[in-house]
Amino acid sequence: MILPIDLILLFFLVIIAIAAVTVKDILAAVILTGAYSFVMANVWLQMGSSDVAFTEAAIGAGVSTALMVAAISRTTRWEK
Amino acid sequence: MMEWLAQHVLEKYNFWIAMTIILIGLYAAMAKGNLLKKLIGLSIFQTAMFLWFISLGDVGRDVMVTWGLKGGTPPIIWEKAVEEGYTYVNPLPNVLMLTGIVVSAATTAVALAIVIRIYQKYGTIEEDEILERELQEEVRYASG
Q1: Would the ipTM clear 0.90, i.e. be above it?
Q2: What is the pLDDT of residues B23-80, one digit of tens each?
Q3: How many CB atoms lie under 10 A from the CB of residue A71?
């Protein structure tokens, strides 16, 4: 674990989580969730749990985002 | 006092940040009206909980302070690890959270299928509009 990298990544994590929750465009929120998963994978990689990191990068940032985009294409994009 | 603060707050900053993100996800899951937004909040909640568990297994954090060792490496066999002063990260939380990530993807898929079905029936995914329509149908049913 390298302390400055850890702190910077965790700071980004909080910022992206707040942005994903507050934005009104659901498609933007989904893409921000993908970015959140990617930053989370980096956090786990520098913590030494590399297996969890690449599972998260594949499933959290890949499959979940694709499923959410497919769900948006069948429902509405804008939050009221 | 300052020692207590350093030991329980600053040193465990990972837990504090995980709890902050958990609260952000819980807020989205409870207060947002849009069903897809609720799901995004739920997945943020899950991932933050995984972060908390992985931080528990990251033994390097306390070991560095107490015994002056160099902290955790990934749990892969490396003969020189002990003589060079490294320790292994605890692999048990890693495998548990590996299972958790797969389960979270499956539950997200099922929840999205239910959201699509709700949209087909009600024409909206806003929670208050769905409840309003339910109420109207109930009133119509009660008045014959």
Answers
A1: yes
A2: 999 999 999 999 999 999 999 999 999 999 998 888 766 655 555 566 677 888 877 7
A3: 23
**3-state SS class at B19:** helix
CA–CA min distance A70, chain B (Å): 9
Let me know if residue A80 belongs to a domain: no
C-alpha closest to that of B32 among B42, B19, B47: B42
Q: Which domains does chain B have, with CATH numbers?
A: 2-142 (1.10.287.3510)
Interface contact A55-B101, CB threshold 8 A = yes
- The count of structural domains within chain A is 1
The type of residue at A32 is L
CA A27, A33, A35, A38 torsion-angle sign: negative
- Whether residues A21 and B37 touch (CB distance < 8 A) is answered with yes
Tell me the nearest-neighbour CA distance from A21 into chain B, angstroms: 6
Note down the domain range covering A7: 3-73
**Shortest CA distance from B91: residue in chain A:** A49
In a mutagenesis test of the B interface, which of A2, A26, A52 is the best target, namely the one with the most B β-carbons within 10 Å? Answer: A52
Confidence of residue A24 (pLDDT cuts 50, 70, 90): very high
pTM of the model: 0.89
